[in-house]
Each structure stands twice: as structure tokens, then as C-alpha cells.
Amino acid sequence: MSDDQLLREHQQIWKGFVRFITISTGLVVITLALMALFLL
């Protein structure tokens, strides 16, 4: 495997990780907002 292939693979993994964290954070924020609306 060449360095270019390793770099591309690493970048794809990183982009997927960042997307997962972004979506997860958004879901947590939405969950907390709904809890604040219905439980308080």
C-alpha cells in the first residue's frame, strides 16, 4: 500500500468518525431539549 492510499483511507475514516460524532451530538441535544420540554 502506498502512502497516498493510506492517507486517503485515513481521511475517509476520519470523515466518518467526525460525521458520527456530529450526528450523535445533535441527537443528544435534541433529546435534552425534548426532556426539558416534557419533564420540567
What is the count of DSSP helices, taking H or I runs of 4+ residues? 1
What structural class results from the helix and strand content? mainly alpha
How would you characterize the largest beta sheet? none
Q: Flag low-confidence runs.
A: none
Task: Give me the strand/helix succession.
Answer: H
Q: Roughly how many Å apart are the termini?
A: 56 Å
User: Total strand count, please?
Assistant: 0
Topology:
Blueprint: H1 3-39
Q: Which key phrases capture this entry?
A:
40 residues; mainly alpha; 1 helix; 92% helix; rod-shaped
Description:
With 40 residues, the chain is an all-alpha fold. It is built from 1 helix and no strands. The chain starts with a helix and ends with a helix.
Quick rundown:
The protein is mostly helical and 40 residues long. It has one helix at 3-39.
